[in-house]
Amino acid sequence: MSAPGLSAALFERGAHVHIVGIGGAGMSAIARVLLGRGVRVSGSDRALSAQTAALEALGARIYEGHAAQHLEAPQAVLISSAIAPENPEVQAALSAGIPVLRRREALPLLLSGTFQIAVAGTHGKTTTTALIAHILRQAGRDPSYIIGGTLLNSGTNAHQGTGDAFVIEADEYDYMFLGLAPRIAVLTNIEHDHPDMFPTFAAVQEAFAQFIGRIPEYDGVLIACADEPNALQLAKARRSSGQPTLTYSIRDAAADWRGQLSGAALTIEGVQDGRTVRATTRLSLYGEHNAQNSLAAVAAACVYGVPLAEAASALPSFRGTARRFEIMGVAKGITVINDYAHHPTAIRATLQAARARFPQTTIWSVWQPHTYSRTRLLLNEFVRAFTEADRVLITDIYGARERPQPDDPTAEQIAALLQRTGKAAQYSGDLARTTALLAESVRPNSAVIIFSAGDAPQIGERLLQRLSH
């Protein structure tokens, strides 16, 4: 939807940009960066939220709902992936000859002149992006960043810094990451996800291959996880063509950057400035997947120029990101945790980390399936993902942008499939019923993990309220 001949001046001080869907994770982050640059920002969303209130406090003009009159002659209109072409603000902009840009089209202008450090992958990209931003902040580099969740150390999901580095989460959905040209690219893993966008795994692989192809041939570096075969395959292909490529691993001694995990201690070894370097640090995060994320972040920071000892020393103070194993509260001996995992691999990894952190605790998994297409595609994997959970509650499916098809599995049917494996699982219905069931059933010395990319964190808030009275 972009117009030709646009320049980075669209996103510089004095310009006016209107954002449709400004409350979403991706667009609110862009809005923060623009506001930090002195750009006049206006925007709309179907409902106001804490995110839109925060942007308003920073100087953005926010409208609830969508209407043509919300446009006040901006130089450009940015739209999220959820915005339909018939949106009245989009139509008004097109009629007025105002450029309408999706993230993929806006990012080359927004990131012009910066040193891009991008993190891609089906899982782990939010945490790894946040870790890199945290390390560079601790090292005094003041990076700009855009993260798919709030960095708890800073309290924001984005920042316009004074340094040359721009750390960004490279989202594959809507092919957003094809708007990037990273000097350093981290690839965590590749699995089939977002079937509404990528009907086959081959389509996913092709998209990631195109992303890797956007790394500059000779002064750009790919840092890929050697523990994940699909990421490693792309790394080998790039390396065989003579382009700079590094691998990282907590299992493969032949990887360029190696990590050895012992409890919370992570020993990191690699090559920096032509010599072997080694450092041991403590992780604030649990689970092997977070050891991999931490190793990837340190490797990226070292390639950027931060000495290993300095990069590793930042890890213990990392507080994590919102909705990634985020402890919402503790009441009457019950710990309530909010986690964004909505793919079986991510759920499995999070439960393994939970079992490591709470070895003698009853673990309740509350899973809100996210989108009908994903639930249908990965049904068998979902059924096998809850091994480490003692009890599983399955809420109504969160359809997001989708409507159910006649042959789609229901939450009741999924619960029955889990029961057949011997798992104590049940369908719990809507958010209110699920909250009531938990309040009646959960006992002290329990952890309740809410797996949701939708609105199910409300269950945790309501449960803590009920337990506190």
From TrEMBL:
Lineage per the UniProt record: Bacteria, Bacillati, Chloroflexota, Candidatus Thermofontia, Candidatus Thermofonsia Clade 1
Protein's name according to its UniProt entry: UDP-N-acetylmuramate--L-alanine ligase
Xref: InterPro entries: Mur-like_cat_sf, Mur_ligase_C, Mur_ligase_C_dom_sf, Mur_ligase_cen, Mur_ligase_N, MurCDEF_pg_biosynth, UDP-N-AcMur_Ala_ligase_MurC
Keyword Protein transport: no
SUPFAM superfamilies: MurCD N-terminal domain, MurD-like peptide ligases, catalytic domain, MurD-like peptide ligases, peptide-binding domain
Binding site for ATP: G121, T122, H123, G124, K125, T126, T127
Compartments, as annotated in UniProt: Cytoplasm
PANTHER family: UDP-N-ACETYLMURAMATE--L-ALANINE LIGASE, UDP-N-ACETYLMURAMATE--L-ALANINE LIGASE-RELATED
Family: Belongs to the MurCDEF family.
One function term, GO molecular function aspect: UDP-N-acetylmuramate-L-alanine ligase activity
